[in-house]
Amino acid sequence: MKTCMLTGSFDPFTVGHLDLVRRVVGVFDKVYVAVLVNPLKKYTFSVDQRLRILHAALDEYQNVRVVSYAGMTYDLARELGVDYLVRGIRAESDFRYEQDMAEFNMQEGGIDTICLMTNALHDVSSGEVRRRLQAQESLVGYVPDVCIPLVEKIYWSEVNA
Prior knowledge:
Blueprint (H helix, E strand, L loop, with lengths): L2 E6 L6 H10 L5 E7 L10 H12 L5 E6 L3 H8 L3 E6 L2 H18 L2 E6 L8 H9 L13 H12 L2
Parallel strand pairs: 1-2, 1-4, 2-3, 4-5
Helix pairs in contact: 3-4
């Protein structure tokens, strides 16, 4: 059984993230989507809110499991028996960062990384989604359609309460 893991803060989950998941679900037997919890970072959405959004977006995929973690990615990968990390690359700056992280995860944890070029139609950052939320602009084309009402509800009723 071949497994992979996509990691990120997913603050919030975007159509770009969903595009990566869609591209790997048919290739791997099991796909983990892991929400990073970094106590040093300030998030717009809590870990529970991010998990709710991910479950809404990924519920239809039978071989996807959503988890959260704090600590080193390679430790979680080993714990879950993951064969590959999957990362998306939007631009040259992403490539340099992902190359460094891939080398680190291989050296420290023995876990290999597969990088996929992002689809230009889904080249969206979570930062842009947060900006659009704050400006009360449409999230269509930025967040999976099934998640838009949930993201807006959480943002306006819980995050900005």
